[in-house]
Amino acid sequence: MLKLIFLVLCVLSIQAHGQPSSVYGPKEFKVENKWTAIVAAYAPEIKAINRAMSKIDHAQITETVQIRGVKYQIGRYKDEPIIIFTTGISVPNAAMTMQMALDYFPIDRVVMMGIAGGINPEFSPGDIAVPERWYFHDESVYVNPNLNSGGKSGNTYVLPDYYEQALKTYHARLKTDPNAPNYSNFGYLHPEEMSVIKQGWDTPKQMPYFRATPELIKLTKQAVAQVSPIKMPSGKPIKIKIGGNGVTGSVFVDNAEYRHWLQQVYQAQVSEMESAAVGQVCFVNDVDWVIIRSVSDLAGGQQGKNVENVFDGIASGTGTKLMLGLLDQIVEQQNM
């Protein structure tokens, strides 16, 4: 009896001093067939998904649960398990909600669908982008002008030492990585990179971008070839571009000059407020992911007032059609 008590005390002592224990951390799911998460950021997007699902015989929602204020719809799509939820708008909400979902549910792939501002001048509302890489465009340092250069600031700024050193690393990377941003400032705003830590890494690493899962990009291309032509309500066919870059920030971009800067620095197709955060969380958790973005506005490239509120529902509808085609491809691959 004394030996048993001693062993229990030893176990409790180990747990108390920070050693690995089953009582800490998120649940580890022993599920053979893990789930596909279908994710959107806000109301018009999730409404388009739910409306489309309700019209499909092989799509069912069997349970709805709410955790920490987030509603999760659990069900099946062609007998494959799915979970549908809304992240909330902008980077902090997307990161928080995505990590919560991975902690609470047995998810092994994420398909996000939503709207975005079109940065590529070829895009019109309703067109679809599925970028391979996602960048944070507003991770940056705001600096003072250099007032000691002959009394005029010109285009020079007083950069912190750490940032001058970081710029050398960024510029050196351009020689080996064709997808690295071509960093330049936008006035006093000087871009920098997210520092990321992951299991197995001794120290954080700066990440210029997060890459969507190649297999899901491939399946998306197959979906484009299989789905019926996607059109606007007017009957106008939409463009679908798979590949290239998307940018994320806690900023609703509606400025022509900044839009042009995003083209120059990131070669961006679209801009929005959640995708890179979702990509970072999936990257750190080793979860497959891809993001479909349908253009709702031109991010400041338009004449006059932004029309996002006019096209958000329509753009969500075009994006949902491609998303369903991708789900079909995922199910087909799972059953091979």
Structure characterization notes:
The chain has 336 residues and is α/β, with parallel strands linked by helices. The protein has one domain (32-139, 193-334): Nucleoside phosphorylase domain (Rossmann fold, 3-Layer(aba) Sandwich), CATH 3.40.50.1580. It has helices at 2-16, 43-54, 91-104, 161-173, 214-226, 256-266, 275-285, 308-334, and strands spanning 35-40, 59-67, 70-77, 80-86, 107-118, 128-130, 133-136, 140-142, 189-191, 194-196, 205-207, 210-211, 240-242, 245-248, 268-272, 288-297. Strands 1, 2, 3, 4, 5, 6, 7, 12, 13, 14, 15 and 16 form a twelve-stranded mixed β-sheet that branches. Strand 3 (70-77) and strand 4 (80-86) form a beta hairpin. The longest helix has 27 residues, at 308-334. Residues 2-20 have low confidence and may be disordered.
List its traits.
single chain, 336 residues, 12-stranded mixed sheet, Rossmann fold, alpha/beta
CATH superfamily: Nucleoside phosphorylase domain
Largest sheet: 12 strands, mixed
Number of domains: 1
Tally of separate helices: 8
- The class by helix and strand makeup works out as alpha/beta
CATH domain class name: Alpha Beta
Strand content: 25-35%
Mean pLDDT: 91
Find the CATH topology: Rossmann fold
